[in-house]
C-alpha cells in the first residue's frame, strides 16, 4: 500500500527556503542544531546521503508491517528524522515573528515537542510495506546555496509519490529545511495553525496541544 497523499501533507512541517534568514534567532537555532543533531560533527554528509538515509529508515519502518508496533517504528524513525531535519530553523520559520518573543527555554521546548510530534506522525503512517522503493534524482542547486533533492516513492503497481527536499548546510552537515509532496508544500497552512494557536491560547496551551496530538498518535496505534 502506497502511503496516502493526505497523510504525507499532514505529517511534514515545511519551510520556504526564501524566507529563511539567519539573524540572532537563527544563530541560536544553528547552535541548537549542533546540540540536538544525532550526527557527529566529525561526520561529513551530502544532500543525497541525508535523503537516502531517511528513505532507508522509512522503508525499515514500513517493513515492520502489521506485526510491528508503533514503538518499534518510532525507535527506528526518531533518530533518523531528528538528524535529517533542521528542526530549530523549521521551528523558527513556523512561528515567524512570535519566535523572537520566546525565551531560550520556550524555544528548546518547542523544538523538542515539534521533533517528537513529527517523528510520531511518521511512525503512525509509514507502517505497511508492499514492495515500495525510493529513487533519487541528481541534486540541483537552489537559492542561497541550498540544494534540492527529489525522491520518488514507487509502489509495486507503479504508482508514485514525489518528494522535493530543500537542504541547507549548517556546521558541515546538510539538513532538510523544506519538503514538497507532489508539488504541494503546506508551510503556509502549518505556519497559520501554529501562530494562530500561539496568539489565541498562548505558549503553554500550544505546547499542551502539541503534546496531546503526539500522545494521541501513540494511543491510536497501540
Question: Can you walk through the features of this model?
Answer:
- This protein is of the alpha+beta class and 222 residues long.
- The protein has 8 helices and 5 strands, in the order ααααααβββββαα.
- Strands 1, 2, 3, 4 and 5 form a 5-stranded antiparallel sheet that branches.
- A hairpin with a 5-residue loop joins strand 2 and strand 3 (147-154).
- Helix 1 packs antiparallel against helix 6 (104-125), helix 3 (47-63) packs antiparallel against helix 4 (70-84) and helix 4 (70-84) crosses helix 6 (104-125).
- The model is unreliable at 1-42 (pLDDT under 50).
Summarize the structure.
The chain has 222 residues and is α+β, with helices and mostly antiparallel strands.
Q: Tell me, what's the shape?
A: globular
End-to-end span in angstroms? 20 Å
Instruction: Note the beta-strand portion.
Output: 15-25%
Q: Let me know the number of strands.
A: 5
SS-based structural class? alpha+beta
Specify Rg, calculated over alpha carbons.
Answer: 17 Å
List key phrases describing it.
222 residues; alpha+beta; 5-stranded antiparallel beta sheet; 8 helices; 5 strands; globular; disordered N terminus
Describe the protein's topology.
Blueprint: H1 5-11, H2 24-36, H3 47-63, H4 70-84, H5 87-95, H6 104-125, E1 133-136, E2 140-141, E3 147-154, E4 160-170, E5 173-181, H7 187-201, H8 203-219
Antiparallel strand pairs: 1-3, 2-3, 3-4, 4-5
Helix pairs in contact: 1-6, 2-5, 3-4, 4-6, 6-8, 7-8
Amino acid at each position: 500500500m502506497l502511503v496516502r497523499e493526505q497523510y504525507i501533507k499532514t505529517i511534514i512541517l515545511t519551510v520556504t527556503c526564501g524566507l529563511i534568514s539567519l539573524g540572532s534567532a537563527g544563530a541560536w537555532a544553528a547552535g541548537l542544531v549542533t546540540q540536538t543533531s544525532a550526527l557527529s560533527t566529525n561526520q561529513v554528509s551530502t544532500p543525497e546521503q541525508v535523503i537516502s538515509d531517511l528513505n532507508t529508515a522509512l522503508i525499515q519502518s514500513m517493513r515492520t508491517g502489521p506485526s510491528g508496533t508503533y514503538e518499534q517504528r518510532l525507535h527506528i524513525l526518531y533518530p533518523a528524522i531528528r538528524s535529517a531535519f533542521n528542526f530549530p530553523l523549521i521551528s523558527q520559520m513556523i512561528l515567524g515573528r512570535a519566535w523572537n518573543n520566546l525565551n531560550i527555554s520556550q524555544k528548546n521546548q518547542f523544538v523538542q515537542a515539534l521533533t517528537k510530534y513529527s517523528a510520531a506522525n511518521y511512525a503512525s503512517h509509514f507502517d505497511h510495506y508492499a514492495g515500495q522503493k525510493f529513487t533519487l534524482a541528481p541534486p540541483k542547486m537552489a537559492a542561497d546555496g541550498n540544494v534540492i533533492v527529489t525522491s520518488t516513492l514507487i509502489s509495486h503497481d507503479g504508482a508514485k509519490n514525489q518528494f522535493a527536499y530543500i537542504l541547507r548546510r549548517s556546521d558541515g552537515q546538510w539538513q532538510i529545511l523544506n519538503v514538497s509532496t507532489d508539488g504541494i508544500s503546506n508551510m503556509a497552512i502549518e505556519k497559520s495553525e501554529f501562530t494562530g494557536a500561539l496568539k489565541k491560547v498562548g505558549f503553554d496551551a500550544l505546547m499542551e496541544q502539541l503534546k496531546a496530538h503526539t500522545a494521541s498518535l501513540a494511543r491510536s496505534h497501540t
